[in-house]
Design a protein that fits this description.
It is a single chain. The protein contains 1 helix and 10 strands, in the order E-E-E-H-E-E-E-E-E-E-E. It has a 5-stranded antiparallel sheet with strand order 4-9-8-7-6, with no helix packed on it. A 3-stranded antiparallel sheet has the order 1-2-5, with no helix packed on it. Strands 3-10 form a two-stranded parallel ribbon. A hairpin with a 6-residue loop joins strand 8 and strand 9. The radius of gyration is 14 Å and the shape is globular.
C-alpha cells in the first residue's frame, strides 16, 4: 500500500491527502513551457490517490495549449498544488515541495521529463 502524505499550499487554504505511486526521491521536473517556469519537482499519483481535504473552492484551474492538462493552484497564495497529467490523464502530478514535512533540498538532483518534445505533439 502506498504511503499517505498531506499536501498544502503556503497559506493553508488548500489541503490534500495524496498517495504517490513512487518514492519521493524519484520525483521529476518537466521542461515544457509551463513547468520549467514553475520549477517544482513532481510525483505521480493515481486519480484515486488524491483527495481534497479542504479548500476546493480556493483552487484555481489553469490550462493552455491542448487544454488536456489541468493545473491547479491556490487562488489565495498562488502555490501550485497538483495537475492532471497530459502524458497520462489517469494520474495527477503533485508538487513535492508542498508535501508537509518534506524539503526537496533533502534529495539529490531530480531527473527531467522531456515536455518540450511531448509525444502527443508528434
Amino acid at each position: 500500500m502506498a504511503k499517505t502524505y498531506r499536501l498544502s499550499c503556503h497559506c493553508g487554504a488548500v489541503a490534500l491527502e495524496v498517495q504517490p505511486k513512487q518514492a519521493l526521491a524519484d520525483a521529476k521536473r518537466c521542461d515544457c513551457s509551463y513547468c520549467r517556469r514553475r520549477g517544482a519537482p513532481m510525483l505521480a499519483v493515481p486519480l484515486d490517490g488524491l483527495t481534497v481535504l479542504k479548500g476546493e473552492d480556493a483552487l484555481t484551474l489553469y490550462q493552455f495549449g491542448t487544454h488536456t492538462a489541468r493545473h491547479w493552484f491556490c487562488s489565495v497564495c498562488g502555490i501550485y498544488t497538483h495537475h492532471r497529467r497530459r502524458s497520462n490523464p489517469n494520474e495527477y502530478g503533485i508538487n513535492l515541495g508542498a508535501l508537509e514535512g518534506v524539503n526537496p533540498s533533502d534529495f539529490p538532483e531530480f531527473g527531467w521529463n522531456d515536455g518540450v518534445n511531448h509525444p502527443s505533439d508528434r
